[in-house]
Amino acid sequence: MKYNADEKGYYGEFGGAYIPEMLYPNVEELRQNYLKIMAEESFQKEFNELLKEYVGRPTPLYFAKRLSEKYNTKIYLKREDLCHTGAHKVNNTIGQILMAQRLKKKRIIAETGAGQHGVATATVCALMGLECIVYMGEIDIERQAPNVARMKMLGATVVPALSGSRTLKDATNEAIRDWINNPTDTHYIIGSVVGPHPYPDMVARFQSVISKEIKSQLQEKEGRKNPDYVIACVGGGSNAAGAFYEYLDTPEVGILAVEAAGKGIDTGKSAATSVLGKMGIIHGSKTLLMQTPDGQITEPYSISAGLDYPGVGPMHAHLFKSGRGEFHSVTDDEAMKAGLELCKLEGIIPAIESSHALALFEKKQFKKEDVIVVNLSGRGDKDLNTYIEYFNL
Amino acid sequence: MNRIQQKLEQDKKLLSIYFSAGFPELNDTVSILEKLEANGVDMVEIGLPFSDPLADGPTIQQSSTQALKNGMTTQILFDQLENIRERVSIPLLIMGYFNPILQYGVEAFCKKCKESGIDGLIIPDLPLAEYEAHYKDIFDKYGLMNIFLITPQTSDDRIHQIDAASKGFIYMVSSASTTGSGSAFGNEQEEYFERIHKLKLKNPCIVGFGIKDANTFSMATKRASGAIIGSGFIKMLSKDGIEGIGPFVAAIR
Ligand SMILES: Cc1ncc(COP(=O)(O)O)c(C=O)c1O
Questions:
Q1: Number of domains in chain B
Q2: Could you name the CATH architecture of A57-87+208-391?
Q3: Residue B1's pLDDT is what?
Q4: By C-alpha distance, which of B148, B208, B147, B123 is closest to B174?
Q5: Torsion of CA A20, A317, A358, A338, to 10 degrees
Q6: How far apart are CA A69 and CA A73, in angstroms?
Q7: What residue ranges do the domains of chain A occupy?
């Protein structure tokens, strides 16, 4: 079984490029060039240098002693929360901005939900002096005001998505519509391993730096490259794709994906796509998505805006369907509790997305000698308002 | 010969209308089709509404959303169209996004289309490669024409490829835009229309996107075989309702 994209962008039966003809020239240009450009020595050099000097990589692989004691197993945290801008998202935006420059694009568009990807995109656009337009659902603009302000400070234009349910999926629709209307000078920086081929593969490759580092760091600390398990939360699935990437073909490493159950799987307020979704087409990709029996895409719910997406990337649909990945879902309450626990035990305030991954320790029993890596995808600063309201701080 | 091809053999420029099924009211579909035919429209694209119509501008987004709120589903549309061929004889196409069709079952959908007398399908997010690899045989089995789009950015090579794969006509998107963009046709469009004309394609081209009145219709059809009005028609429907169809069509040509 193969877990990476084939040349047509399929992961098993999932993936492909279901795009209107208006997008074909742009997507095809990218498809024909992305691997070639990424393989160029000058690209690699610039990418790695920026990750090191600007993003602050490698991020630590931190042994969480007190958390390990509590759950009677050996837990390492991959500290993506320490990346510049506060989450793993910037690994991808650095890669894509360099790609856009080599494709001679002058104008950058992006979608954002929580605002993390929007901030990461605005950041690299400022760095490179490129125009930046970020689409964000009108409702998310209200929920995530600090990130809206950050994007504006970084010089980006934030455009409210007023269509549909006015959240992440609609912001993505608006970004795609922008690209249709600006077919020659614009690059669309998608924020996760979603969208038409080659996006899922390209974003996964940029994020794969996470598991490359885990391998060498674990070798240093444990004398072995492979943990027993890697745990990551899945919204679209980019931090998970990055954390799993190097281990996809290593069956002795357990792949644990955690989705947002919201208020509970059966409450109608959930974002657990692997449980509630069916195969369909969203944003140009054939994948699992939440929809009505009639094929209308439904609105997900999670307390965490970054997990509030009705689909998952095609790689994850395939990991789920093939059984290579073990999928779990965690409710708002379980995630919030796990987030607060990490604060108290380790002095780290996690993003609520990442708290979902941490909540797995209450649900799954690990062995004492197991070595487990949790991808701590982001820090909780952006979520302070939600934490304050939830815990009456 | 399919009704679309027959129509295209006639020596006049085709006027085609797009509307969202289930808009303004759930059960307006049949009366709109009858009114369009009675007023001399040559062909109709019946829009199957979708929650996330990526290639559409605000007007068609809103009519789709309203249609869904009115309760429109794929099954209801087929129920409405069950006896349509007793009442309407112009070519009818269904235009919709691929996901609702996939959920209905591509084969079941095509079978229903054939039974209802639908002549062709326009599915913007089902591109040539995926169509040919996975679905062409099913469309062919039920005698449905699948209509592909080209845009000003489509390369000549790809246009020839699409021409070779097309039956019926090619849907020529007038400009780089989503549906209903307001800009008038300028030099760029004229050059594009001219360029396509010179390619001497085997299929006729029908222009869509941005056609809204007599002026844009006549510009678009100078070189092409016909033109499609969507957003402009829906705007009229929102304002004047079904009674506005006669005057609207009369003003186009
Ligand atoms: C910190 C953090 N983790 C995870 C996610 C979810 O995205 P993905 O599943 O692509 O990693 C987000 C998205 O905003 C995020 O900000």
A1: 1
A2: 3-Layer(aba) Sandwich (3.40)
A3: 67
A4: B208
A5: 70
A6: 7
A7: 12-50+89-203, 57-87+208-391
Evaluate: CB of A239 within 6 angstroms of ligand 1.
yes
Cα atoms found within 13 Å of the Cα of residue A187, Cβ hemisphere only:
24
pLDDT (tens digit per residue) in B71-104: 999 999 999 999 999 999 999 999 999 999 999 9
For chain A, say whether B106 makes contact (Cβ under 8 Å). no
Q: Is residue B23 part of a domain?
A: yes
Q: Do A181 and B103 touch (CB under 8 A)?
A: no
**Amino acid occupying residue A50:** L
Instruction: Tell which residue, A157, A147, A148, has the closest CA to residue A125.
Output: A157
pLDDT score recorded for residue A164: 81
Q: Do residues A71 and A371 touch, judged by C-beta distance below 8 A?
A: no
Distance of CA A176 to the CA centre of its chain: 19
Q: Do domains A12-50+89-203 and A57-87+208-391 have the same CATH topology?
A: yes
Residues in chain B: 253
Of the candidates A89, A158, A154, A91, the one whose C-alpha atom is nearest the C-alpha of residue A128 is A154
Amino acid occupying residue A311: G
Give domain A12-50+89-203's CATH architecture.
3-Layer(aba) Sandwich (3.40)
Query: Which of A87, A345, A15, A113 has the alpha carbon at shortest distance from A232?
Result: A87
The DSSP letter of residue A109 is E
Q: How far apart are CA A174 and CA A161, in angstroms?
A: 6
**Mind telling me how many Å the CA of A32 is from chain B's nearest CA?**
15
Whether A211 is catalytic is no
Which positions of chain A have pLDDT values less than 70? none
B170 within some domain:
yes
The answer, yes or no, to whether ipTM is higher than 0.85 is yes
Handedness of CA B32, B33, B38, B40 (dihedral sign): positive
Q: Cα(B211)–Cα(A157) distance, rounded to whole angstroms?
A: 31
Is-above-0.90 flag for pTM?
Answer: yes
By C-alpha distance, the chain B residue nearest A180 is B177
Out of A50-59, A159-168, B22-31, B190-199, least confident range: A159-168
Q: Which residue of B has its CA nearest to A169?
A: B52
Return left, alpha or beta for B204; rule: phi > 0 is left, psi -120 to 50 is alpha, else beta: beta
| Residue B3 in domain | no
CATH number at residue B112: 3.20.20.70
Strand order from edge to edge, sheet including A254-262: A61-63, A74-79, A371-376, A229-233, A254-262, A325-331
